[in-house]
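Researcher: Go.
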Amino acid sequence: MAGRRSLTPLDERMLLSVVRELPPRDRCLITAQWFTGFRISEILSLKVGSVLRDGEIVSKIGVAPRNMKGGYGRSLSCG
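Model: Structure:
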């Protein structure tokens, strides 16, 4: 994709400085997207139970195909 690249270390530090000032919900959304690589629509489709079980973060997070771009395909997971 045109314009797609990894964050440089400077970009990461700048992002972290902005994210630290955000409300917890927004901080969580941005951090989850950053570490999983999911699209924002995929992140927004997640439920708390998709990422937390018994107070612990799960090792694999799955996104249902209906919530993926195009609405079809295999279940996407990150872990």
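Model: Residues 9-78 form one domain.
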